[in-house]
Specification:
The longest helix has 36 residues. The protein has one domain. The radius of gyration is 22 Å and the shape is globular. Helices cover 78% and strands 0% of the residues. The chain is built from 20 helices and no strands. This is Gluconate:H+ symporter. Its main location: membrane. Belongs to the GntP permease family.
Length: 460
C-alpha cells in the first residue's frame, strides 16, 4: 500500500465527516447540495482535473437515476393506486387480523423475504412502503407499540430486502461472483438461503424490538398521506377483493421471478429467456404492474380516468426530492470510484493474511463502503480472488460467493443510494438513518460472514 493510497483513504474519511457536518450542523444544508459540495471537494483533494470531476458527478447522478429513478417513480405510482383504491388497507387488515403486534415484525419480514427473492432493494422498499405505512399507522392509532411503529415494521422489511439483494441469486451481485468463481448456482442458492435466515431474524425483528422504543420516527406527512390516506374509500365504490389487492402488488414480483427462473433453467439464447428477461427487467416489470393496477384498481371499479391521471401525477411530487438526493449519493460514489479509492482498498486488502472466504468478505465490504456500490464491492473482490480460486480447487466457491455478497452489504452509508431512500422515505435524521439501515446491513453482513465460515467448517 503506497502513500498515495493512504492519502486517498484519508480524503474519503474526511469527505464523509464533512458531509455529516454540513447536514447535521447549524447550517442544516440540504443533502443534495451537501453531497455535491463534498463530491467536488473530494475530487479536487484526490487530484482529479476539473473536467473529470464534472463528468464524474454527471455520470454518477445519471447512472443512479437510470438504475433506480424510473423504478422508484413507477413504484410510487403503484403505491398511490394501492392506497387510493383501498387495496393496501385491505392487505393490512388481512395481516393484522388475528395477529398480535408482537408477531407483525415477523410477518412483515417474511413478506419482504419472499418479495425480495427477485427484487432489487430499492424497488422492493418502494413497493412495500404503502403496506409498511398502513400497518404502522394502525399500530400508532392503537398505541400498541412503545416507540415508533414505523421503525418496528420498517426495520424487518429493510433487513429482509437487503439480505436477499446481496446474498441470494438471482440478484446481479451473487450472479457476478458465481460467474467469476465458476460456482454451482444451486448450491449457492441453498447456502444463500441458509445464511439469509439468521441474518434476517437478527437484523430484522430482533434488532427492531431492541431499537424501536428509543426512536420516535414518523415519515413526512405528504408521503404518509400518499401511501396511507386519511380519507376512507367512497361507500359507493365497490370494495377491493383481497385477491385483487394481492394480485396488484404481486404482478411485478412475478415478472421479475419469471426472469430469475428463466436465467436458472433456460439458455440465454432461448426465446423464453429473452422474453422473460424483457418482462422481468425492473422498469418493464413495474410498468406492467402499474398498467395492471390501473385496470384492476381503477377502470374495473369505474374510477374516472382523469382522477387516475391526477393521482399518478400527484404520486411523483413527494418522491421528487428523494430521487434527486439518491442521484447526489450516486455522484459522490462515482467521484470516489474515479479518484482511485477502490484501487487503494484492493492494495490494502491484498496485504492481509486471511482465508479466501474472510478475504473475499473484507475486500467486498471495504470496496462497498468506500465507493458506495455493492456491485463495485463484488466485482472488485471477485477480480482479486479469481486467480486464487483457480489455483486452489479446495475453496468452496459457493460459500465464497455468499461471503462476498454479504460483505458488499456491510455498513451502508452516505454514499449509497439506499441510505438516502430509507432516510427520506421515513423522515429520519442522519443519526437515525445510521441506527437503522447502516446498523441493520452491518448485522446482516457480519452474520453472513459468520454463517459462511461455520458452513465452511462443517462441510470441510
Amino acid at each position: 500500500m503506497t502513500g498515495h493510497d493512504t492519502q486517498l483513504l484519508i480524503i474519503t474519511v474526511c469527505g464523509i465527516l464533512l458531509l455529516i457536518a454540513l447536514i447535521t450542523s447549524k447550517l442544516h444544508m440540504h443533502p443534495l447540495v451537501a453531497l455535491l459540495i463534498v463530491s467536488v471537494g473530494v475530487g479536487l483533494a484526490s487530484g482529479l482535473n476539473l473536467d473529470k470531476i464534472a463528468e464524474s458527478i454527471e455520470n454518477g447522478a445519471g447512472s443512479t437515476l437510470g438504475e433506480t429513478g424510473l423504478t422508484v417513480a413507477l413504484g410510487a405510482m403503484l403505491g398511490k393506486l394501492l392506497a387510493d383504491s383501498g387495496a393496501s388497507e385491505r392487505i393490512a387488515s388481512v395481516i393484522l387480523r388475528g395477529s398480535g403486534h408482537k408477531s407483525l415484525p415477523w410477518l412483515m419480514a417474511l413478506a419482504a423475504f419472499i418479495i425480495g427473492i427477485p427484487m432489487f432493494f430499492e424497488v422492493g422498499l418502494i413497493m412495500l412502503l404503502p403496506l409498511i405505512f398502513t400497518v404502522a399507522k394502525k399500530l400508532e392509532v392503537h398505541g400498541s407499540v412503545k416507540g415508533s411503529p414505523y421503525i418496528a415494521i420498517g426495520i424487518p422489511v429493510i433487513a429482509a430486502l437487503a439480505t436477499m439483494h446481496g446474498m441470494v441469486p438471482p440478484h446481479p451481485g451473487p450472479l457476478i461472483a458465481i460467474s467469476a468463481f465458476h460456482a454451482n448456482l444451486s448450491m449457492t442458492m441453498i447456502y444463500g438461503f441458509i445464511c439469509a435466515v439468521p441474518a434476517v431474524v437478527l437484523a430484522g425483528p430482533i434488532y427492531s424490538k431492541f431499537i424501536t422504543p428509543t426512536m420516535t420516527v414518523k415519515p413526512d406527512k405528504d408521503l404518509l398521506d400518499q401511501y396511507s390516506p386519511q380519507t376512507e374509500t367512497n361507500n359507493d365504490t365497490p370494495s377491493i377483493p383481497i385477491t385483487t389487492a394481492f394480485a396488484a402488488i404481486l404482478i411485478p414480483v412475478l415478472m421479475m421471478l419469471l426472469h430469475a427462473v428463466a436465467g436458472t433453467f433456460f439458455s440465454e439464447k432461448s426465446v423464453f429467456y429473452k422474453v422473460a428477461a424483457f418482462v422481468g427487467n425492473p422498469v418493464i416489470a413495474m410498468l406492467i404492474g402499474v398498467l395492471a393496477a390501473i385496470i384492476m384498481l381503477g377502470y374495473a371499479r369505474g374510477t374516472n380516468t382523469k382522477t387516475i391521471r391526477d393521482s399518478l401525477g400527484t404520486s411523483l411530487k413527494p418522491i421528487a426530492g428523494i430521487l434527486l438526493i439518491i442521484a447526489g449519493g450516486g455522484a459522490f460514489g462515482e467521484v470516489l470510484k474515479d479518484s482511485g479509492v477502490g484501487d487503494a482498498i484492493v492494495h490494502l486488502a491484498s496485504g492481509f493474511s486471511l482465508s479466501a472466504i474472510t478475504l473475499g468478505w473484507v475486500v467486498a465490504a471495504l470496496l462497498s463502503v468506500s465507493t458506495g456500490s455493492a456491485t463495485v464491492g463484488i466485482v472488485g473482490s471477485t477480480s482479486l480472488l479469481a486467480p486464487l480460486v483457480a489455483a486452489d480447487p479446495s475453496i468452496n466457491t459457493a460459500l465464497l460467493t455468499v461471503a462476498v455478497g454479504s460483505g458488499s452489504l456491510f455498513f451502508n452509508y452516505a454514499n449509497h443510494g439506499g441510505f438516502w431512500l430509507v432516510k427520506e422515505s421515513f423522515g429520519m435524521s442522519m443519526g437515525e438513518t445510521f441506527k437503522t439501515i447502516t446498523i441493520v446491513q452491518s448485522i446482516v453482513g457480519l452474520v453472513g460472514l459468520a454463517m459462511t465460515l461455520l458452513l465452511n467448517f462443517i462441510v470441510g
